[in-house]
Amino acid sequence: MRGLPKAGILDRCKESKSCPKIIEHFGAAEVWGQKLTVGWVGTDAKVDIPLPSNVRRYYFASTPHGGGAGGFNTAPGNLPGCSSMNYGTGTFGANPMPQTETVTALRFHFRNWVMKNKLPPESVYPKIADGTLVPPTRKWLHFPKIPAVLASTYPEAPYNNFMQAMLDYDWGDTMNYSENIGYHEWEPPIIKQVIPQLVPAVDADGNELGGVPVALLGAPLGTYMGWNIASAGFHQGQLCNYTGGWVPFEKTRADRLAKGDPRLSLQERYGDHAGYVAAVTAAADDAMAQGFLLKADRDALVAAAAASSVLQ
User: Fold this and answer.
1) What is the pLDDT of residue 160?
2) How far apart are CA 219 and CA 109, in angstroms?
3) CA distance 86 to 285
4) pLDDT tens-digit profile of 115-168?
5) What is the per-residue pLDDT for 261?
6) Do 103 and 22 meet the contact criterion of CB atoms below 8 Å apart?
């Protein structure tokens, strides 16, 4: 789309036969706030770019930047401060969706890959080919009409106000854009075009598809978002930088119907506390079976769910 030559960051190491083993992992906030998916599908966003054999890529669906605090709690949580200066406070509570246990498992696999040449799990991330990577519009994304989101600023298509735009800049002919060397002929740059971006598709709850299995996402307590909306200040109604948010499910069917919430309540999903613990156990077992959770962490998560107050 930018008229630049075809190139990649591993070109030089391929020539010298010195490419390392690489594991990449990212969360949802990097999609909405840091232009992540252009690296997956290129600047025309038409086809998935194949990964070389020395690279594994894992996506942590519905997580904030660096992961959330984890735990099995239905409280909305504190409103997060938007990252960077002068962005204000988010509209929704801080997203608790964790990355810690998954990263621990990936480090285990990475060590075995480097030291014993034992392959880690296959890459898991949203793709155009399987329909889990879509344009950021209501037509494609199907984000549910959650009352708490409608009450603030429901994302219309396209989601321009709370997705960082990928801009194609013109700095002049003295800039080598592929090598990032040279100098700018003028400031500020001329904006030539907006590069299209894609985002992970979501399920009926608004939780993202196409990521690695995580116990809390497999037995959700609400909608976990890689974006948040600034509640005041200069950026009010726009992206809360790359801070995530979440909206808990209502406890009962009557509660959600009274508020017009289309998402099933906790009781409708799990019945009672024992039913929720069983759902967490099944989700944790699935993550462990696929290689994304170690046994010690699986046991700790199940114990934490059992000790929680969910549907008590």
Assistant:
1) 54
2) 25
3) 43
4) 999 999 999 999 999 999 999 877 778 888 898 887 655 455 444 566 888 999
5) 96
6) no
Q: How far apart are CA 302 and CA 285, in angstroms?
A: 10
In what helix (H) or strand (E) does residue 22 lie, and over which residues does it extend?
strand 22-27
Domain that holds residue 186: 15-307
Strand partners, 225: 245
CB–CB of 229/154 below 8 Å? no
DSSP annotation of 232 reads S
- Beta-carbon contacts of residue 256 (< 8 Å; ≥ 6 apart): 249, 250, 262, 263, 264, 265
DSSP for 94-108?
Answer: PP----HHHHHHHHH
Extract the tokens encoding 29. Answer: 């906030």
How many domains does the chain divide into? 1
* Alpha-helical regions (H) of the chain: 11-16, 28-34, 38-41, 100-116, 138-141, 147-153, 215-218, 253-259, 266-270, 273-289, 295-307
Q: For residue 157, what pLDDT is reported?
A: 41
Q: pLDDT tens for residues 81-104?
A: 887 666 788 899 999 999 999 999
Tell me: cis bond preceding 188? Omega within 30 of 0 counts: yes
312, part of any domain: no
The mean per-residue pLDDT over the stretch 277-298 comes to 98
Q: Which stretch of DSSP H or E encloses residue 294? A: none
pLDDT in tens, 204-224: 999 999 999 999 999 999 999
Q: Facing residues of 251 across strands? A: none
Asked if the structure places residue 40 within a domain, the reply is yes
Q: What letter represents residue 218's amino acid?
A: G
Among 263, 310, 234, CA closest to 149: 263
Radius of gyration of the chain (CA): 21
Q: How far apart are CA 176 and CA 183, in angstroms?
A: 8
- With respect to residue 9, please indicate whether it lies within any of the assigned structural domains: no
Give SS3 for 76: coil
Q: Is residue 92 part of a domain?
A: yes
Say how far apart CA 11 and CA 16 lie, in whole Å. Answer: 9
